[in-house]
Every structure is written in structure tokens, then in C-alpha cells.
């Protein structure tokens, strides 16, 4: 879902002052729209009628795909808080 507002904020690395991204600023209307969209997708989508064992299999598949792609995420978080890379790439295991 795309942001509904027109304002954005520059995300700057405190380490070197370089611009990392230009991110949209959420609006109340945009948040309401996102919540309504998510509720509609949940209520009318397949997830509520999916058997728990099938849900578990889907979540396991998702976790495995995320695990394979962890190297792609290593560079995202340290710009803001500098957590150790091994901790950062393993955060999802605690979910």
C-alpha cells in the first residue's frame, strides 16, 4: 500500500551524515485506510479459514525464505542503532 500523504522525511545516517532514504510521513487518513484494508483482507481472505497445520507450514516456509535472505538485510539496521550483525540477522528466530 502506498502512502496517502505528500510529505516525506529524509532519513540520514548519524554515522556519516549521508542520506539513506526519503520516507513518506504517515497521515491519520492513510493509517485508517491501511487498517481498514488489512481488516478486510483478513476477514474476507483465506487465512481465517486455513487449517492451523497449513498456517504453520506457510509460516515455516516464510521463515525459511527470510533466513535465506538475511544477508540482504544486514546493512539496514546498523545505521540507526548499530546492533551486532549476528544479533541483527537472527532477530526473527525469537518470533
TrEMBL record:
Pfam families listed in its UniProt record: Aldedh (PF00171)
UniProt keyword list: Oxidoreductase
Domain of life: Bacteria
GO terms, molecular function: oxidoreductase activity
Spans through the membrane: none
Annotated ranges, domain Aldehyde dehydrogenase: 6-70
InterPro entries hit by this protein: Ald_DH/histidinol_DH, Ald_DH_N, Aldehyde_DH_dom
Name of the protein in its database record: Aldehyde dehydrogenase family protein
